[in-house]
Amino acid sequence: MSDVILTMKDIDKSFPGVHALDHVNFEVKKGEVHALMGENGAGKSTLMKVLTGIYTKDSGTITYEGKEVEFHNTRDAQDAGIVIVHQELNMLGHLTVAQNIFIGREFKKGIGIDDKKMNEEAQKLFEKLHIDIDPTETMSNLTVGKQQMCEIAKAISHDAKVIIFDEPSAALTEAEIEELFKIIRDLRKQQLGIVYISHRMDEIKVITDRVTVMRDGCYVGTLVTSECTKDDIINMMVGRVIYEDPKTVSNVPKDAPVVLKVEHLNAGRMVQDVSFELRKGEILGFSGLMGAGRTETARAIFGADPKTSGDIYVNGQKVVINTPQDAVKCGIGYLSEDRKRFGIVVQKSVAENSTMASLENFVKGLFINKKEEKKVAQDYVNSLATKTPSTEQLVVNLSGGNQQKIVIAKWLVRNCDILIFDEPTRGIDVGAKNEIYKLMNRLAAEGKSVIMISSEMTEILRMSDRIIVMCEGKKTGEIDISEASQELIMNMATREIN
Amino acid sequence: MRKIKENPIIKKIGINRIVLCGVLLLMYVIFCLLSETFTGMQRIMSALNYAYFLGFLSLGVTFVIATGGIDFSIGPVMFCSALISGYCLTHYGVPLALSLVISILVGVLFGIFNGYFVAYWTVPPFIISMASMNIAKGLASVFTKTQSVSWPQSADANGWYRNLVKVGNFPVGLVIFLVVAVLCSVLLNQTKAGRYILCLGSNKEAVRLSGVNVKKWEMLAYIICGALVGIAAIFFVAAYTTVQPGYGDQYNNEAIAGCVMGGTSMAGGLASISGTVIGVFIIALLQEGILALGFTKDYQLIITGIIVIVAVYADVATRRRKN
Amino acid sequence: MSKGVNAPAEKKTSIFSKPGSQKIIVLLVVVVLFVFFSVLSPNFRKYTTVLSIMDYSYYIALMAIGVTFPLITGGVDLSIGTGLICYSLAGGYLIVHCGWPTWAGMLVAVLFGVLIGTLNGVLVSVMNLPPFLATLCTCMITRGLGSICSKGFGISWPTSGAEGSWFRNVFKITIGDTKYPLGFLWVLLLVAIMAFVLNHTKIGRYTIAIGSNKEATILSGINVKFYHIMAYVISGFFAGLASIAYSAVFSTVQPGTGAGFELEAIGGAIIGGVSASGGAGSIGGSLLGVFVICLLKTGLPYIGLQANWQQIITGMVLIGAVMVDILKKKKTATV
To answer: pTM score, two decimals?
Structure first.
């Protein structure tokens, strides 16, 4: 008797420039909680998107309840009983809990909707799952944790047989996680197959039966949770040969001046009491897993988001940074991780984007000195080897890597002394990556200071003089490059239960 | 080849402008053929009278639409400016030159008002427009004690302002309008202010994260619009003499129509002054032509409404295709 | 990155997040305004004044009931003002100049409203035009159409006592010596019906869903295009009803008027709690908001302020209401 409900075999999927899934195998049994782990970019989300029909696989088979299937959209998958509870909750904030759960399939009474019945059914559903939520409460009034539970209840109400949880505990409190686990245990008893995507080692140990690890789009292996250690899992996640030379020794002299000091920075849950220093000529790597709070920290420092408390010192002087304007005036530049939304102005040219942060320097009287602008833009196009037919080319027409170079050029034109790069090489091909690494080293050698937020271990180990690790909004580690290793970093990046 | 085609919006505006000029000429020819009274300077002068004030309104609202916003208080504000400054002239004996300045100032004040709420309080532009539209109407009414105001005739001592529109048969107004249009184009394309206005219309957050004070520049777009509305008021009274409180709405749509037809995108970030100018001429000519053929303004309203729908739909559709 | 990750463990509930709180505040404002004007002006307290206020409120109230739906989807309908004039002119022309029976003219007016409403819905939902622009264009079109329908003349629907004037009694009935504002009952009835539609039928439910999160609604398999169009059809339908109310109260309907009516209706809805960004609103609240606007409009002259001050004050009240909405959102969005 096979108790396997879902088998994904030899799944292969490529996007232009990246082999996202390389003959991946994954299997889920009835009545089991199966963890899917891996670093950012390992392919976990992509695999699930292939399963639920958001992406179409290039090759491989998916067998569900003994039959081969292929879903073309989430509705089909949902109707078949495979449901995914997303990180980004898909809910209608202005409606009540019950209304959200039954949206699209309301109970009728005469010409109207039978809200009373809906509330009762929702209540029954919650009781079955031992969730304590008032079905008549407006969705947006609930905490994120409770909203998530509603999503789960909604999934169950679709008669789900396989539920995929994508980083479910990222936004939950301790108490809520406990409740979540109770629900999952119940679901397991009811013979559902549960996929649990998470990077939280301790949770994996507590709630899951098996662990499958992916790395760089490949299937690495599957372990039985009770028979393996945290280190075993970490080894599978990171164990790889690094081809580029990692830095072994810091380039920064011990007596280098501190250019940026951040003390007790607080900005909501994602930035809790973060303090650190950045030295002149240093490349400070910020490592951690998705949701660790690194981007939020950077944005708080840069004034892009409000902070609740914290002091920032630039070159020893305390500065007040409430807006990006303030930060830029202090000589800080920030390269956001989502360049299309926050980095470039798509309808404008290479030249116009390059001078966006320093337009005052190109203004003669009232007018913009477009000749000068073009010349400077061209200089940077040359020095960064940006592939563009001309500086008049619209940025929207460049490839991702070249767009990134334009954003970098923007901050270089401004001559910032402190540069925060947030995932600088994301979505960029190997050749361009190398150039950006060379550029960063050159900047550091010239006396600029760089904070590099990156989820790529190789990058962190290659470039950093020092590494700060964050987890869940807190700084969990600070390592000099001479002592750094993948295992050490990963340890600090994954949560510990005390 | 494809790269050149997709390439610059500059190229797109180029084709757009050529098409619009073609439409303008075609319209003129058709009207001439259909109506004997259409040939001759008289009609053209009449159409120009309409084009001047509408043109300034359109130029103004182009800046606002470039930021991704909208302003349909422009009609009533224009009337408010004309009424208040005219009342100062006729009832308080304010010298003419100063009255002209007052007209512009009133426009600027409303621009500041609109811009402040949109930029600093993120009030949706259409709501603030509705509110200031009402306030403009009410204010004008209160100021002039609900009376209409008639500006001086050309024969009067104070009639020299009419020379702004024409001297003899020479269309001075056209020259002034085109000069101002050129200035607007320079402002939008060659200055820091224009650069920021266009960029924030395209991607406000990216500009903010580049360290630019976007609120300031967004408000400025509304202030520029207000100033141009104040100027529009002057050209309105120079052509039509009398203004009545409580009106002005009808010109909003036509001003926006001229702007959108000319290639300025409702989504922001893309604006063409030259396109706006041609668009305004088309609407003014349409108005004149419809009247010449014996139809009422109603038909012109309907046709303009349809034209705007088509123009905006084309804008929306091409943007969707690109995405 | 998870949305809402910055939310606190316990959601802050302020007085504003309690449902219905805004309605109570607006009701208080209505009462306060009424008392204020009554105290300051003996003429205001007269029964005839109350009747007058009622009369002039019906058409705005009906518009507001209808426009609440597009507003809740996050859009707007600016064509209701000139639209109602157009529908009235069209129906009235048929009655007065073509000899049609009054009920037929009324029917035409309403159907015309539904037609334009459908057009608006298609422009916004199917062709994806920005709502304010699409309805601005239909506003122009209806303005022109209205004038063409009546051949440029003003139209007077049958006056009291004339044949076919029964429709006026729908709004104001004379029993014995006194006149009673019957129209108010109809408005209340319609408010009750539409509140039911909004809160307990699929049309209303999906209207709110679209305004709350259009993508999520599409993902739930709902035919969003259809329901989005319906919101504008409802708005058009009520503009049609409003045209009848307008014709019943005003002796002559003039082409070229109507611009500005929509502000009173939309302003009333926003004051009554409709959120400018969509997803929230109530029919009862919209009605109360309209009362605020009508009270200001009719009451100000009684205390010596010219009627045009009302326009200024209405504008400022609208801004105030929106600011409250925005501040409310800022408060519940946390760091």
So the answer is: 0.82
Q: Copy the structure tokens of residue A443.
A: 């900047």
Average pLDDT, chain B: 86
Task: Name B235's Cβ contacts closer than 8 Å, sequence gap at least 6.
Answer: B52, B53, B56, B164, B165, B173, B177
Beta bridge partners of C253: C155
Looking at the domain B46-322, which fold is it? Answer: ABC transporter involved in vitamin B12 uptake, BtuC (1.10.3470)
Nearest CA in chain A to C19: A138
Nearest-CB residue to A342 (from B3, B202, B209):
B209
Chain A residues with CB within 8 Å of chain B CB: 302, 304, 323-325, 327-329, 334, 336, 341-348, 352, 356-357, 359-360, 363, 366-368, 370, 389, 392-394, 397, 410, 414
Nearest by CB to residue C335, choosing from A75, A89, A308, is: A308
Residues A233 and A262 reside in one and the same domain: no
Which residues in A lie closer than 8 A to residue B203 (C-beta atoms)? 341, 344-347
Alpha carbons B188 and B221: distance in angstroms, whole number: 10
Cα separation of A1 and A410, whole Å? 63
ipTM for the predicted complex comes to 0.82
Question: In terms of domains, do A454 and A310 share one?
Answer: yes
Q: How far apart are CA B191 and CA B217, in angstroms?
A: 12
| Calpha distance A246→C194 (Å, rounded) | 68
**Neighbors of chain B with 3 or more C-beta pairs under 8 Å:** A, C
Query: pLDDT (tens digit, 9 = 90+) per residue, A334-367?
Result: 998 888 788 899 888 999 999 999 998 999 888 9
Domain finish residue from A183, A203, A238: A238
Does some domain include residue A472? yes
Chosen from C205, C223, C224, C330 to mutate, greatest number of chain A CBs within 10 A? C205
β-strand partners of A6 = A28, A64
CATH number at residue A356: 3.40.50.300
The helix or strand, by DSSP H or E, that contains position B285, with its residue range, turns out to be helix B273-292
Domain membership of residue A181 as a residue range = 4-238
**Contact between chains at B192 and A368 (C-beta distance less than 8 A):** yes
Which of the two residues, C163 and C190, has the higher pLDDT score? C190
With beta carbons under 8 A apart, name residues in chain B contacting A364. Answer: none
User: DSSP letters of C129-163?
Assistant: --HHHHHHHHHHHHHHHHHHHTTT--B-PPPTTST
Residue C279 and residue A99 in contact, taking contact as beta carbons nearer than 8 Å? no
pLDDT tens track for A438-465: 888 888 998 999 999 998 888 898 899 9
The two tokens of residue C93 are: 């022309």
Domain's final residue, options A208, A238, A268:
A238
Tell me whether residues C202 and A88 touch, CB distance under 8 A: no
- Confidence class of residue B171 from pLDDT cuts 50, 70 and 90? confident
- The pLDDT of C101-123, averaged and rounded, is 94
Pick from A334, A317, A302: which is nearest to A258 by CA? A317
pLDDT of residue A466: 93
Supply angle C-alpha A78, A82, A85, rounded to 5. Answer: 85
Looking up residue C152, the CATH number of its domain turns out to be 1.10.3470
Name chain C contacts of A103, Cβ cutoff 8 Å. Answer: 205, 209, 217, 220, 222
Residue of B nearest to C132 (CA): B126
Residue of B nearest to A410 (CA): B210
Number of structural domains (chain C) is 1
For residue A352, what pLDDT is reported? 93
The stretch A205-228 carries a mean pLDDT of 90
- Model pLDDT, residue A317: 93
